[in-house]
Recover the amino acids of this structure.
């Protein structure tokens, strides 16, 4: 959707959606929208005329996407000056309504059915308020509110309280006197980071699986905890942990903690809004740089990069079947934290389900230090997140224009690792260059099938229909430079069997292994066909 430049006291719709990323709010229309007002959202009332501040947001409570009345309300909201209307999709096709919104000049937003209207109103109010403050001040927002909230929870529930984000960083903690704490709590406060312990993964998993408060038994000498996940709709934002020193926090304490979690959503969103906007804008620039294009020099300048390297791109990907949303979020945070702490000018971004790290001061001597970092991340993700991670490093390049090639090589290495054609969970492009060449050639052969040797194609078809292994036999024979003894051993057949197969190859497919040009094309075709 094209956005008209915002005016003072307004926010661009894409910026608002970035602040509320993963809250269940999605843009469904495609037309032009003005900047949205930073005032509180309006609630739809079928018994009252639509009156709104220009650029305001209307919450279409009770409107069903399939009802004709909803189409009328969308048009009337646009005429009244609203900049956006929010509906629930309710499993309906919403495309026609989106077209109506485009024609009327209003943005159509859809919120996840699981998000309550009261919670959405509070989320929007918090995001708009945070943006209004961000216009007046560049300082981080809401941290003081989080500390006040932590103290309020500690007083209400009855134990020392810590509020954390998904990276297990301590955002705020209570400071009420005479509430017992243990070393885990003390170390978390001192470092503002939950200390790594073997039991962490299991404890956090149980908290984020539950819909309410969870009792966590401490591994002695640690005390027990009462904990709860903080969510915006179905999207986790963080967690709250209350020390249960004597094991006497009852069901009333659980209910109080559950109410506090709803309030914490607003504070966590507010605390991260300004920081997240800057981070997401930088991430978008980094995506453009990794994808390449005519504007890479300009993008590099906006990122503050030198035009000459060396540069290298590392890529990280969860094993297939483990890329659930929470695991991916926590992995992004782990990779980003470790890579940026590693130095070498690292910057990270998530594209699809792959996390990329651009090292802008990559060592010219090779990717050894990046490999050490990647292997530590693989070990750490297995230990703390209990997920299997694959990692790769692309070619080291010397100009910003070639950064996309390094990313391309890293992707190919990941593809090779996922296919099982290379053992292990890490590889770099420099070490497997020949295999990468074959992968790229396989893509070329796929798009240009006439390049494939006709004999190789006939051979594979014959094998598939007859259950024979002529293609594998010939490829192995050529791999071993026509050494019969090594080929027989590799295929686990007698040399007489091998000689029979080679004779039949000539008879069936007219193959002449003494012709060097035909042999090269045939060998290459047999290899790349295995990758198609």
């Amino acid at each position: 959707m094209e956005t008209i430049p915002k005016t003072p006291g307004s926010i661009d719709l894409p910026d608002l959606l970035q602040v509320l990323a993963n809250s269940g709010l999605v843009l469904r229309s495609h037309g032009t929208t003005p900047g949205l007002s930073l005032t509180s959202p309006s609630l739809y009332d079928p018994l009252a005329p639509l009156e709104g501040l220009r650029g305001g947001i209307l919450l279409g409570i009770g409107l069903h996407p399939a009802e004709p009345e909803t189409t009328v309300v969308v048009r009337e909201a646009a005429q009244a000056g609203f900049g956006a209307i929010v509906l629930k999709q309710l499993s309906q096709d919403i495309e026609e309504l989106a077209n109506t919104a485009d024609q009327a000049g209003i943005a159509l937003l859809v919120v996840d059915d699981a998000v309550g209207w009261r919670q959405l109103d509070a989320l929007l109010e918090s995001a708009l308020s945070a943006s209004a403050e961000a216009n007046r001040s560049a300082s981080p927002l809401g941290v003081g509110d989080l500390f006040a909230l932590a103290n309020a929870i500690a007083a209400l529930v009855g134990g020392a309280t810590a509020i954390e984000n998904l990276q297990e960083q301590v955002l705020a903690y209570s400071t009420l006197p005479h509430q017992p704490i243990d070393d885990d709590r003390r170390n978390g406060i001192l470092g503002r980071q939950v200390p790594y312990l073997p039991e962490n993964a299991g404890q956090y998993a149980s908290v984020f699986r539950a819909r309410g408060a969870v009792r966590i038994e401490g591994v002695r000498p640690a005390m027990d905890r009462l904990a709860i996940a903080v969510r915006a709709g179905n999207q986790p934002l963080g967690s709250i942990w209350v020390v249960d020193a004597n094991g006497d926090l009852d069901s009333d304490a659980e209910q109080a903690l559950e109410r506090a979690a709803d309030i914490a959503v607003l504070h966590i969103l507010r605390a991260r809004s300004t920081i997240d906007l800057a981070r997401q804008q930088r991430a978008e620039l980094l995506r453009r740089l990794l994808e390449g294009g005519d504007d890479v020099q300009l993008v590099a300048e906006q990122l503050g990069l030198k035009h000459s390297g060396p540069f290298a791109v590392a890529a990280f990907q969860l094993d297939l079947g483990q890329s659930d949303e929470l695991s991916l979020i926590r992995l992004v945070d782990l990779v980003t934290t470790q890579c940026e702490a590693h130095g070498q000018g690292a910057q990270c971004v998530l594209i699809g389900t792959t996390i990329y790290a651009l090292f802008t001061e990559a060592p010219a001597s090779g990717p050894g230090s990046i490999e050490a970092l990647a292997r530590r991340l693989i070990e750490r993700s297995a230990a703390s997140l209990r997920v299997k991670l694959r990692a790769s490093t692309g070619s080291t390049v010397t100009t910003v224009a070639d950064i996309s090639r390094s990313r391309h090589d890293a992707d190919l290495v990941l593809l090779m690792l996922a296919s099982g054609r290379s053992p292990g969970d890490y590889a770099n492009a420099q070490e497997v260059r020949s295999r990468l060449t074959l992968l790229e050639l396989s893509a070329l052969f796929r798009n240009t099938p006439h390049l494939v040797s006709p004999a190789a194609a006939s051979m594979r078809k014959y094998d598939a229909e007859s259950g024979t292994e002529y293609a594998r036999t010939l490829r192995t024979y050529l791999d071993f430079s026509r050494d019969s003894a090594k080929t027989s051993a590799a295929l686990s057949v007698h040399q007489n069997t091998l000689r029979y197969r080679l004779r039949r190859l000539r008879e069936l497919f007219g193959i002449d292994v003494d012709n060097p040009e035909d042999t090269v094309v045939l060998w290459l075709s047999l290899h790349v066909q295995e990758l198609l």
User: Anything to note?
Assistant: The first helix runs from residue 13 to 19. Confidence is low (pLDDT under 50) at residues 1-8, 133-144.
